[in-house]
Amino acid sequence: LSRGENALLPDPRDGFPRWIMMESASRLLHRGSEERNPALLGQAIAVFRELGSADPKSPASHYYLLHAFSRLAALGGRAEDHARASAAGREALRLGYHDPEIVKSILSEALASGDLPEIRLALEAAGLLVLPPERLDHPDPGRRLLDHGGQLADLLLDLPVDAVQAAVVAQRPVDQRRG
Prior knowledge:
The chain is mainly alpha-helical. It has seven helices and four strands; from the N terminus they run H-H-H-H-H-H-H-E-E-E-E. The model is unreliable at 129-168 (pLDDT under 50).
């Protein structure tokens, strides 16, 4: 790039304060998890929320919020913390953090919340289409493999097998003639 073009780019040093805050909050999250301390996890959550407000296009703070709320839920057993974890993960996914592990975490937290609308949102975010919501109230859910985007997602969830349907992806025919 020329000097003029380079001058138009943002200065990378402008992001250092956010990076330092992210590192600090990440350490709080890990320390709070190791010490099983909800107060430290709450502090980390506050910083990650502030970072999310400061940089609304970045999925990083939402990714960490998923883990912070998940660990808080594990300590306190509150369903609303599971739902908050799932919502944070969905936001990270929406903002571009595409990773199979985050999809599993979103679905796992939604199921742990026991909140049917949250489960529906998590399945939709994962690319799974939910059939009528009354099917999720099935009294005897079994462990089934779900199909994600036409490929095996390797997700073992406690949902009735008829509660989900793979997303339909249009594919064009492939010519398999040789030569």
